[in-house]
Amino acid sequence: MTTYPRPASGPRPPLRAGSHEPAPAVPRRGAGGRRLLVVLFLGGLVASVLPWWLDTPTGSLTGGIAMTTAAGQITGLVAGYLLLVQVLMMSRLPVLELWAGGERIARWHRDVAATLLVAVLAHTALILVGYAGLEGRSPLRQAGVMLREYQDMVSAFAAAGLLVLVGLVSVRAVRRVLPYELWHATHLAAYAVLLLGYAHQFSNGSQLFRPGPARTGWIALYVLVIAAWLWGRVIKPLRFNLRHRLRVSDLVTESPDAVSIYLTGVRLDRLELLGGQFFRWRFLTRGCWWQSHPFSVSAAGNDRWLRLTVKVVGRHTQDLRNLDPGVRVWAAGPSGTCTAAHRTRERALLIAAGSGITPLRAMLEELPPNAALIYRARTSADVLLREELDWLARNRGLRVWYVLGSRGDPGPRQVMTPDGIRQLVPDVARRDVYLCGPPGLVEQCRRVLRQAGVRRRQIHLATFEL
Amino acid sequence: MRRALLAITGLAASTTALVVFKAAPGTGQLAREVPAPAPTAAGKAEPAAGPDRKTPSGSPKPTRSAAGASRSASSAAPKRPAASPTGTAAAQPSASTIVGPVATNEFGEVQVRITVVGDRIVNAAALRLPRRTAQSDQRSDQVDSRYSGTVGMVVERQSADLDTITGATATSDSYRGSLQAAIDQAR
């Protein structure tokens, strides 16, 4: 293995601040942008139902059939709008990243997804029952008639089916047992939903089939979302990768099941990377090029190399162990708001579990001194980057606790209580707390921290999973 | 996940609220319907200026079709009198419009207006047609284009004895009903 500079042995990443230097300035990314996004979303929601509202005279809905059909129309409009919002949120538009942050948007995406699924199912059911009542058939026969006689309904039913499938594989319990690759491939099918569901809105939508402002606006919304998607997903990454041309330079085994991948490239000094952020990586080698995975950068930004530390958990990560130096890497990012720049207080507490240490390790150098780190791991062999953490502890006044053992062991159980945390970090309520680890542990930590008096906005989650 | 549950509950609640708000308050609907046939008498009494009069109507969509229909009527009506002086009525070919009653079926309401010169129907227009769904809108358009207008089946046959439009039986029936009543009033 070639000897490439590593923080623990050779030259260290340039430290941004000495132990008594002032901390890096905090860019103000307050709640303003986020609130604006929420207002825009709600405004769009109202606007999408408005055509129905204006089209339906008060008192015109007589009887259950008309009311069922009307409810079907409303849920249809809402579903159409939410689907576009979903795609927009996944467009990785820089503005969204700046105003809300990748992690929050991923959580929104999840919540909207559940609502969208219910809206689509309600739309399908209500319209079927409504039209069936109108024509005096059973809903099942009506479904047959619609598939045969109505324009674009075959593709619309296919879209609904796909959406249900995507929703199904994204249920946490199901997703956990599926390989990431399968989940990802199914999720890509969601774009087909956009395509398949498009036509029926205009051929059968009572509010949209006539030329007019509603129809024009609806089409404009599609154009807008697709443009945003192209910008965030194609043009921006293209520019980034042409500018930096990343390649694998070295692989270092960190533990029996974790490996660090060092990357080099050009103009890395102009990379605007904050510790704690992540990229979506695509390694352009046989078997890997077609999948893109999010991994945090595990060392602070410097002008010579990038590093990601990966835990081997699936087929893809297994393949990453055998990467050859020189392999080209396509990266999309950086994104994420779990960084030192997003803190609200002077001091910080970091809680990591397992490979969740990687983003926190990268931000340690950018945090002001006197940060504290609680590192949960099953055994001491699972502790990653220990030399570097110890080095930071010696040189930057970082306090580190390694909490080893499985969840039920007395040690970890004692620490993961409000009192246990307060015992280690008495001023926890006056610190920003950064969490990274498996979802279950993050959720548990969040509860405990809230009980210990930490405010919600002081808690930062480095979860970029959907 | 809690937020998602909230959102779903919100969706259900607001959809219900919207529908209930737009729903007929039962008796109010009947009260609204009563004045509707009123233009019948008024329309009958009124002479040539009649075709441009818009029938009061609650919903925007029928109004659109009514506006469209009356436009075609007004452009067509002046031509007729010009052509008909050669006929028997000779001296004063005054056109009158008669609006039929509202005929209701399970898809919505149908109301027909005819323009009569002497004892000849020169134009027919649908003031109301069912347009609740895109499908029923298409069917209504079929009925309208076949029956209505200065060269439609109504003018051609001079009676309510019209062929049923395939796939739009109920609307065809209602159209004939409203038309027959209008013709009866004219005679």
UniProtKB/TrEMBL annotation, chain A:
Statement: the UniProt record of this protein carries the keyword Flavoprotein: yes
InterPro entries cross-referenced by the UniProt entry: FAD-bd_8, FAD-bd_FR_type, Fe3_Rdtase_TM_dom, FNR_nucleotide-bd, MRET, OxRdtase_FAD/NAD-bd, Riboflavin_synthase-like_b-brl
Protein name: Ferric reductase
Classification via Pfam families: FAD_binding_8, Ferric_reduct, NAD_binding_1
PROSITE patterns attached to this UniProt entry: FAD_FR
Membrane topology: Multi-pass membrane protein
Residue intervals of the FAD-binding FR-type domain: 241-341
Cofactor list: FAD
UniProt-annotated stretches for the region Disordered: 1-27
Membrane-spanning intervals of the chain: 36-54, 74-91, 112-134, 154-174, 181-199, 219-235
Keyword Iron-sulfur: yes
Cellular localisation: Membrane
PANTHER family, sorted: 1,2-PHENYLACETYL-COA EPOXIDASE, SUBUNIT E, NADH OXIDOREDUCTASE HCR
Record keywords: 2Fe-2S, FAD, Flavoprotein, Iron, Iron-sulfur, Membrane, Metal-binding, Oxidoreductase, Transmembrane, Transmembrane helix
From TrEMBL, chain B:
Signal peptide: 1-19
Keyword Signal among UniProt keywords: yes
UniProt biased composition (Polar residues): 86-95
Superkingdom of source: Bacteria
Chain residue ranges for the region called Disordered: 31-95
Keywords: Signal
Low complexity bias spans: 39-50, 64-85
Residue ranges of every copy of the FMN-binding domain listed in the record: 106-186
UniProt-recorded name of the protein: FMN-binding domain-containing protein
Organism: Micromonospora andamanensis
